[in-house]
Amino acid sequence: MQKIKGIFLSQKGFKVFACVVLWLLFLWLLFPWLAAFWLSTSFDKEIREIQVGNAKRQFFLHIPSGLSDKTAVPVMFFLQGFDSPEVPSFDTRWLYSFIIEMSEKKGFIAVFPRGKRGSFPEVPGVLAWYPENIFENRYFIIKLCRYIQENYNIDHEKIIWAGYSNGAYMGAIELLGCPSSPFTHFYLNAGGYPYGIKEPLPRKKVFLSVGKSDEHNFHFVQILYKFLLKHNWPESSLKISLHNGAHVYSPDSFEEMWSFFFIP
Predict the structure, then answer these.
(1) What is the pLDDT of residues 133-172, one digit of tens each?
(2) Residue 64 half-sphere exposure, CB side, CA atoms within 13 Å?
(3) How far apart are the first and last CA of the chain?
(4) Which of 33, 140, 227, 239 is buried most deeply by CB count within 10 Å?
(5) Which CATH number does the domain housing residue 243 bear?
(6) Range of 67's domain?
(7) pTM for this structure?
């Protein structure tokens, strides 16, 4: 006989009880992975192309359901960090699916440009944005932005550059080096560094997010934050959010970013 909190169970009953507990524990541990797998496999967007110079560049596009042509809406360009060349990786599909979920919830158009192979020489086989091919990649982003502006009813005061990792470093270059950039808000995750600043420069809204355990990027994002403060970025236009993870995208940062950008 086994006794659990004052209740006596037979040996058979105890085994059944133990099996149920173990199965519940297993499902509890497995649930986040099943949810991530479902999100990643639910990404079924058709890849699109746009002519940029002599090359065709690829992107994905999501238009939220119920969108009215009469209403100008925000648009978010989300630049992933490293990605696989042929098809988006599991992590990328999960991230894109999450942004699409937020697109449906908030009513913004989501654009997912794909980087260029060879842009990160240390890992030449992946798609990336910088340090190589910066001008070519930026030209692609700007041309794609113009295409979206010309073909959809966009709120020109709500054009968001959202970047993760390598895409965030590219975003910091756009923020500080391009005074005439069409992007009005910068949502930079797990990356960013102040390579320089080109004045006069409008102090656009910036939201930074980084993990406290991100050993390669935490320090650089802190440097960027302090650089912006030193160069008179108003506190009303600058915020940093720290999470407990490492080099990962934090979904919790999205609501915080959206409120900071658009809710008075």
Answers:
(1) 999 999 999 999 999 999 999 999 999 999 999 999 999 9
(2) 24
(3) 63
(4) 140
(5) 3.40.50.1820
(6) 45-262
(7) 0.85
